[in-house]
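Bit of a strange request maybe. I'm writing a small parser for structure token strings and I need a real example to test against, not something I typed by hand. Could someone generate the tokens for this chain?
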Amino acid sequence: MYKKKLESDIRCPLEYGLEVFGGKWNSRIICVLASRQTLRYSELRREMGNITDAVLASTLKGLISNGLIVRKQYNEMSMRVEYSLSEKGLSVVPILQSICKWSGQFYRDESENTLIQCRKCDYK
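Reply from user aminoacidic:
Good idea to test on real output. This should exercise your parser:
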């Protein structure tokens, strides 16, 4: 099982929330899975764009250990693994949408680099 290298120094609920769904990749993965519901690793990697395999694998392990993502393995001829949001992960989505809506008032990026899921988000 995934284990962090350093003990976290969380002293309030806000810090816990920011650690769980904050950071560059956690919130992006949550948003992609909220939009697409269930994805295999390769599909998720394609949706994420410029993330390395090592970073994606590590981030998924962290999200799984925090109970935000469910990893389901199917023992078939060619092993299949799917990722989806847990109930806890789904509960984060409205929070991220609120942050996105607030951020949209102050930040505008019309570039092609914007995630497809972000272009669909109703933050404008």
